[in-house]
Amino acid sequence: MKKNIQTLLLIMILPSLMVIFGGCKKFLDRAPLQASLEDLNQGGLEGQVFGLYGNFLDRNGSYHGFSSIPWFALNSFRGDDAMKGSSAADGADWETVYDNFQYQKAHWSASIYWDQKYNMINKANTVLQTADSLGLSDPASLVNIGEAKFFRALTYFDLVRVFGEVPKIDFRIYNPNDSKKPKATVPQIWALIDADLTAAIANLPPDWNNASGNSKFPGRLTRYAAMTLAAKTKIYRGDWAGCLGLCQQVISSGKYQLLSDYSSLFKVEGENSKESLFEIQAYVGPNGVPDAGHEYGVEQGVRGSGAWDLGWGWNVPEPGQEASYEAGDKRRGATILYSGQDDGYGKTVPAFPTVPRLYWNKKVYPEPSMQASTGRRQNNWLNHGVIRYADVLLLAAEAANELGGAGNQADAVTWINTIRSRAGLSNVAFTTQAAMRDIIKRERRSELAMEGERFFDLVRWGDAIAVLGGRGYTPCHQYYPLPQSAIDFAGGVLIQNPCW
User: Fold this and answer.
1) Cα separation values, 45 from 7, 135, 148, 367, 453, Å
2) For residue 455, what are the CA distances in angstroms to 209, 402, 476?
3) DSSP secondary-structure letter at 217?
4) 473 alpha carbon, distance to own chain's centre
5) Are residues 330 and 403 both part of a single domain?
6) Domain span at residue 249?
7) Taking the CB of residue 345, how many other CB atoms lie within 10 A of it?
8) pLDDT tens for residues 36-48?
9) Are 117 and 71 part of one and the same domain?
10) pLDDT digits over 349-380, tens only?
């Protein structure tokens, strides 16, 4: 149960609270988090690295680039699985910009997304500069270096998918003017991501288990998380063999499996489970204390009144997403919460137009038991799952199908049927590569709906114009324009993307 592991999670995501955990001696016996380079001994990077995890939940708002409305806008609204949501008048400009592809260079959403991505990159670079300056090469420091490089790679992965060419900042910034750099090419950014993930794979442990086989650090990065991220980056470049090889290593490790109940993935019981490779951690204790929560769930909760004031109502399912599921697919009911229908816990959601949308994201719905234990109506205790095992199987199946050959075709069918079986669907058989490609695309849409993958999948498959063209998407909309604030700050060094 999550309740039994949260003390350790809090150590990871709130380093400033470490002094209250008297029983965790190993965490207290290290230099202060604000130590100078001279104060740090070998292994002393750990405090800085824990700060990287905590950066996802920074109370000053750094999570906007990873788990909040700007992230939803750039990673989710633009697909055909999700839309802006809320009431029509609330943030109407966001719908225009993102759902209807009328991009704006000066919209604050992209500016804060950009700024907070580079904030994370600079924090990772600071860890790496510290290690390099001190010549740290002990095992503990190498792990910390691997964690910092994973986070830098993850952040650049988002940036290169969203903006294309971006400045490559792979050094610590001491003066803001040092960040005034021209754009690097997309291949140069991919090369940095490749190098970072290669190092992360080499240095991160396979798990964080203690002698009893339980994780000492639920949610902390492992080499398999780095392998999966590396596999995903390779599939974006059509490196089928590279993607498949990495996925096969994750699969053959035996450390991961699908949970039997798809809906449990999006409840407290499914957090940091056998299906999880990386989650942004959140926690709210009994009666709301301690509060290490964030707004990922709050901003997507049902927008209502009274007992149904569950959030801001943003990032809701598209009608086309609701209609896309096969008959009997259990993922529909686990993904879509219907206005005017039972919520799955014996309560009826208010009907439209009492609440402003027909559908809501069920994957962030607040469990009544957690509402009672935390004293919170709105769900700010939910982890944000970033990488899970189902995606490994889907990536592996796609790469195997594209490579072709009887063995790869058989593996692709096996992996897809594993996904479909949990969803309550019948098995499929291989007929042609093209037919299997369509099946895989459909499974990715159903399995990963509302999780920020769909728009990028459509672009990399070359399907975006066919699917999104009616809403205004053109080839120019693959990449969002660089924020005007970044262009202005750079003083002519940073050149805007083509078309904008």
Assistant:
1) 21, 12, 10, 37, 33
2) 36, 20, 14
3) S
4) 24
5) no
6) 236-275+388-459
7) 10
8) 444 444 456 999 9
9) yes
10) 999 999 999 999 999 999 999 999 999 999 99
Structure tokens at 109: 């959403």
In the chain, the amino acid numbered 115 is D
* 374 neighbors 105 (Cβ within 8 angstroms): no
Rounded to whole angstroms, the Cα distance separating 268 from 382 reads: 7
Give the integer Cα–Cα distance in Å for 17 and 33.
Answer: 11
What's the CATH code of the domain at 50? 1.25.40.390
Shared domain for 254 and 328, answered yes or no, is no
Residue 336: in which H helix or E strand, if any?
Answer: strand 336-338
Concatenate the DSSP letters of all residues of 375-435 into one string.
Answer: --SS-----EEEEEHHHHHHHHHHHHHHH-SHHHHHHHHHHHHHHHHHTT--------HHH
Mean pLDDT, the chain cut into blocks of 10 residues (500 residues total): 39 34 27 39 78 81 85 98 98 98 97 96 98 95 98 98 98 96 98 98 96 88 98 98 98 98 97 97 95 95 98 98 98 98 98 98 98 97 97 99 98 98 98 98 98 98 98 98 97 96
Q: How many CB atoms lie within 10 A of CB 96?
A: 16
3-state secondary structure of 456: helix
Transcribe 108-147 into DSSP letters. HHHHHHHHHHHHHHHHHHHHHHHHHHHT--SHHHHHHHHH
User: What is the β-pairing status of strands 314-317 and 82-85?
Assistant: antiparallel
Our count of domains for the chain comes to 3
Minimal CA–CA distance to 97: which of 71, 81, 78? 78
CA gap 250, 392 in Å, rounded = 8
Check whether residue 66 and residue 190 sit in a common domain: yes
Q: Is residue 138 part of a domain?
A: yes
- Decide: 420 and 443 in contact? Cβ < 8 Å: yes
DSSP-assigned beta bridge partners for residue 278: 387
Q: DSSP readout, 140-171?
A: HHHHHHHHHHHHHHHHHHHHHHHHSS-----S
Environment class of residue 415 by beta-carbon count within 10 Å: exposed (0-12), middle (13-18) or buried (19+)? buried
Q: Give the predicted TM-score (pTM) of the model.
A: 0.92
- Whether the upstream peptide bond of residue 353 has omega within 30° of 0, thus cis, is yes
